Amino acid sequence: MNKIIVFCPNLVGDTVMATPALRALRRGFPEATILGVIRPQVAPTLDGTEWLDDLIPFDHASSDRSTRTLAVSRRLRAERAELAVLLPNSFRSALVAWSAGIARRIGYARGGRGILLTDRMTVPRDDGERLPVPIVDYYLAIVRRLGCPVDSVRTELATTPDDEVAADRVWESLGLGEGLPVVCFNTGGAFGPAKNWPREHFVTLARRLVDEAGVRVLIVCGPAERATAKAIAAAARDPRVTSLADFDVGIGLTKACIKRSDLLITTDSGPRHFAAAFGVAVITLFGPTHIAWTRTYHPLAVHLFHPVPCGPCQKPICPLGHQRCMTELSPDAVFRAATRMLPRRRAAFVPADLEEPESVARAIRATHPDVVIHAAGRTPPGEPGLFYRANTLTTLHMLDALRAADAPVRLVLAGSAAELGPVAETDLPVAEDHPCRPADAYGMSKWLSTCAGLSTGPPLEVVVARVFNPIGPGQPLNQAFGRFAARLNDRRAGPLSLVVGDLDARRDFVDVRDATRALVVLAEGGRGGRIYNVGTGMSHQVGDGLAHLIRRSGRMVEVRVDPGLTTNLGPRDSRADIRRIVAETGWCPRIAWEQTLDDLWDEAARRVGATRPLPLTA
Q: pTM of the predicted model, to two decimals?
């Protein structure tokens, strides 16, 4: 393949979410010339990156005839490319690729354009309805079809030296380099006014952040948002609240300012994705748009929204005229989220033996908690008695101690999918109200804990997080992937033999960091007396995960399946229905399966001192 044309997305945010696909395409075709067709106003998003050799501006409505449809089609025909990769869903992009005579054209068959494509991708559906697939994954599916290796779902951007110089001038002019954290506000978006958070809410939040959190606030903006940014800064009446309104604003300056900030608070618009690409903490204020479509797998992202019966409507203008999804999302809620993400005080540790009732009671009396997250317990393997002592009795002791305190407390119990027992394929993904039929002592011990918690009344408020299969960095050796990673990191040279159990079983593996975040989210916003599934809604085969770790190890590995290590008690497949927790709290998983395995591997390698993959041996 000598030359490839990539039709880039039409929006800034979508372009950022396309960067994992662009990175994979470059890795898959390292020697090819790759040209990007992109809207001129979006092109600065990719400035400083190196995946595309050149950009071809395309805007069919432009006053510049050289960027219109006919001129771009002629330009592409002259390039004599062999492949066109169509990331946007537009009919026009497919028509241009077809009219340019590009022999192979790959993209999603939508909007009647399938006839113009040679490689037609289908949109994921469930019973005829489109599934909310994150755009990152949506684009990656295209390059995967081309055989390109996907190294990560992480989005990535760069700044240019000119961008950084412009940001230096802002920092110096506004006095932002004084050692205080900088919180950026992004107030607008191209989607429509339905996404806008009220101006007075931004003013209230800015005042609280500078007064109570001791930060500086910088309101970023594009040309269209200058007036809003200037008005918010003026209404705050505090020199610690400033804006870019008086600077030469553009995408490059916005990228550089967000890159050097400590936190971005933003509506669901393009600059939101700059934070993920630069590893900056971000709080996104959602209203009419669906969170799942634009998931970025960013571990430092928090999504806030106020649930309303009419949403998310996906409309640019509120069809009912009230915009309650945004107006009723309070500055207090955003302030609380912001203070959690800014530097905080050190934690204090209070020792307690959870198997001793009086020890638990002393700890509760000493701390006077408002919220308790009970995630302690024992996982298999083990004798049945161990599970009942470590899981059921400790929960009973916690409930007794909290009742004795006679104060309003919210208790979040970390449950387990093992409470369900085997679930029929026809019942997947399994909802919270599915009958529980635990198949082993571990599942029974967790189910009894759940029953005890939900049977407790005021002043306690109990929420159960039914966590499916947690996996990630620090996984203990008594669990499959922790054991796999440790064995593969054995630094002794030579081939390795692994004896394993059932590799065909499928599980809903949820990253432990996502699961932990779910516990916190439920502590803040879950409804008492309810169970919430915590998973991803997808299942992966155990054998696929092992194969990924083997590839990371770089070793020759003989894998032998021992039927004696396989239990028939567990389900063949397990998938959580996570619609309840998403709808009621806004939580959704962010860390992809492949990223989880990579982080698990890296942590295991550090633990044994093997910081580099072992050499391939024969």
A: 0.60
